[in-house]
């Protein structure tokens, strides 16, 4: 969250723009030692959280979200391929034949795909995914520490505590279950640093250009996170500027700030003109995600609950108040909520009236995002009510309709981290009795110890079949032709994108697949949906794969299957006994029987069954 560079308590500020604290700062060699120590702790913590994948990056998958893992692996491979082959990084015909996929309305992580393209070609998409995921967690912790230590607090312990808490907050660890976009929390402190620099007199052009580039990078990696950060900045700065004690200062800073903001908008628009056009006007676009905002709203009780992958969760204190373990966006625990209120009270009591403007703005920001995260109607302890909430007025607006309300809770954890850091900073500078210091230490321990992160759950993932890894597929598919696994590629069965990612990253050439795991049009009221609108054959085979039941195949089924294959332009269908199901085991024996009834006897080629499709 944006925060004035002045401390919340301490010596009175100068009458000009907010300045960093005038308290003595550590000498440069000592600061460098602290920086290295924090970087090391952040890296060790990130490796610890992701250690289940490090055991075998190609053979392990995130248990609760292997489908998103496969999607981001594909995005890294396709981005590298598009860069090296001069293809469009924001639209692809390799998925969802014959319509293609608009990647600009999906999370295309274009910057990551370009920056890590050499690594993707060197070690493959799964290992590159793991490197980026681990770097995201470590970078988030260090990024917040850096912002705190350079601009917001005076003491190193305060910056360390705040940075590590925000970097490994429950929401960050939850989204490490496969989300390269939301785990990139380092984007927020870099954006806030850029916003703080806009107030510098005489440097609005340079600072505006810099922030514009940061905005473009953030849009590529986490557009939803960029929107939340911008919204939080607006709430914080608006509240701060309207405070009576800051109005004169705000009017003085406003011209420089607006000039820099105008340059930021111009630079960002110039860099993002085409992606934005694709997002709002391009082919295969949609409006709204199609996810139910009532289901994907934060349960009020979730703020006081503990998440699964923490010490408290391992002790059996976790709950099921999130729609899935990846969306535990608040889950701060009741002791931490009490501690945050106590820190707010402490800071308020020791702050002068002018500095209380910053504290008030922080409180308003936390309150606004907490209430908005509850979605359109009150939900508490999984009981849905008809009591309306402010989000009901916003959920239909552009941009808001493409965000999940529960994720607005991710803004609250950084506010809590800032309060903790400033409280530690203050506690180190004011006289306290031994009993009081012991009480504060106990409070921090009781609140934070249960939230220490545990490792992500992982599961064995069957390897890409030899039919693909050996390049044998090229003998059966024309260049750019369509190959499909059975069942067809969807979020529930992401093998097609895994195989395609392998082929692209190992420079084997291109094959396209029908369907796929992506967000596209076709949902109710013009909203989006996961994957394409099902056709009879893919719906039939997915149901067989899920249940193992073998329905009676009729001539009408065979006629529909032939029509679907023509529509998809399929040349080869492939079934492997090692098919990976993201939410359930693939009943491949049943799929083999039903596919044989539909398409005839398959060939056994390498380690797969194969059906050739006549033109």
Automatic annotation (TrEMBL):
Domain DUF6311, first and last residues per copy: 40-403
Protein origin, superkingdom: Bacteria
Residue ranges of the TM segments: 36-55, 127-148, 155-173, 208-237, 257-277, 331-351, 357-375, 439-459
Disordered: annotated span: 1-29
Biased composition (Pro residues): 10-27
Annotated keywords: Membrane, Transmembrane, Transmembrane helix
Name of the protein: DUF2079 domain-containing protein
Organism: Plantactinospora alkalitolerans
Keyword presence, Chaperone: no
One Pfam family, short name: DUF6311
């Amino acid at each position: 969250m944006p925060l004035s560079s002045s401390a919340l308590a301490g010596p009175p500020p100068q009458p000009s723009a907010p300045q960093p604290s005038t308290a003595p700062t550590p000498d440069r060699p000592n600061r460098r030692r602290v920086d290295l120590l924090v970087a090391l702790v952040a890296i060790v913590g990130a490796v610890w959280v992701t250690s289940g994948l490090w055991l075998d990056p190609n053979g392990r998958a995130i248990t609760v979200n292997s489908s998103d893992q496969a999607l981001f692996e594909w995005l890294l491979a396709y981005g590298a391929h598009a860069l090296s082959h001069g293809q469009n990084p924001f639209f692809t015909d390799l998925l969802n034949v014959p319509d293609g996929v608009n990647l600009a309305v999906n999370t295309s992580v274009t910057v990551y795909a370009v920056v890590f393209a050499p690594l993707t070609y060197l070690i493959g998409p799964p290992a590159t995914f793991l490197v980026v995921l681990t770097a995201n967690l470590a970078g988030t912790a260090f990024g917040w520490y850096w912002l705190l230590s350079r601009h917001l607090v005076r003491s190193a312990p305060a910056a360390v505590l705040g940075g590590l808490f925000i970097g490994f907050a429950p929401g960050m660890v939850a989204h490490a279950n496969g989300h390269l976009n939301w785990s990139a929390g380092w984007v927020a402190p870099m954006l806030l640093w850029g916003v703080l620099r806009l107030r510098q007199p005489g440097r609005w052009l340079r600072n505006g250009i810099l922030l514009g580039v940061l905005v473009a990078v953030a849009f590529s990696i986490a557009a939803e996170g960029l929107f939340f950060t911008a919204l939080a900045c607006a709430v914080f700065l608006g509240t701060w500027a309207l405070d009576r004690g800051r109005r004169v200062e705000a009017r003085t800073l406003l011209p420089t700030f607006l000039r820099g903001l105008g340059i930021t908008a111009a630079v960002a628009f110039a860099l993002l003109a085409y992606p934005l056009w694709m997002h709002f006007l391009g082919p295969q676009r949609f409006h709204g995600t199609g996810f139910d905002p009532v289901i994907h709203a934060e349960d009020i009780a979730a703020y006081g609950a503990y998440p699964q992958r923490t010490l408290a969760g391992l002790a059996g204190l976790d709950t099921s108040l999130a729609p899935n373990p990846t969306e535990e966006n608040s889950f701060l625990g009741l002791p931490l909520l009490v501690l945050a209120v106590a820190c707010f009270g402490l800071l308020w009591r020791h702050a002068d009236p002018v500095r209380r403007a910053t504290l008030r703005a922080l409180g308003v920001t936390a309150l606004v995002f907490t209430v908005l995260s509850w979605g359109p109607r009150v939900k508490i302890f999984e009981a849905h009510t008809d009591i309306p909430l402010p989000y009901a007025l916003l959920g239909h607006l552009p941009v808001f309709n493409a965000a999940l309300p529960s994720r607005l809770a991710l803004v609250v954890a950084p506010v809590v981290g800032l309060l903790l850091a400033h409280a530690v900073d203050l506690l180190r500078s004011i006289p306290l009795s031994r009993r009081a210091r012991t009480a504060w230490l106990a409070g921090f321990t009781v609140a934070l110890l249960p939230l220490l992160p545990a490792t992500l759950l992982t599961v064995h993932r069957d390897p890409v079949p030899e039919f693909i890894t050996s390049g044998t597929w090229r003998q059966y598919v024309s260049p750019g032709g369509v190959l499909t696994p059975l069942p067809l590629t969807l979020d529930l069965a992401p093998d097609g994108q895994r195989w395609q990612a392998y082929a692209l990253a190992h420079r084997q050439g291109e094959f396209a697949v029908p369907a796929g795991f992506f967000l596209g049009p076709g949902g109710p009221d013009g909203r989006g949906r996961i994957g394409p609108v099902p056709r009879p054959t893919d719906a039939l085979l997915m149901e067989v794969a899920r249940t193992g039941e073998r329905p009676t195949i009729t001539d009408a089924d065979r006629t529909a299957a032939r029509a679907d294959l023509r529509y998809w332009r399929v040349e080869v269908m492939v079934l492997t006994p090692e098919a990976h199901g993201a939410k359930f085991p693939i009943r491949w024996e049943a799929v083999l029987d039903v596919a044989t009834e539909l398409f005839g006897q398959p060939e056994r080629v390498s380690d797969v069954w194969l059906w050739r499709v006549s033109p």
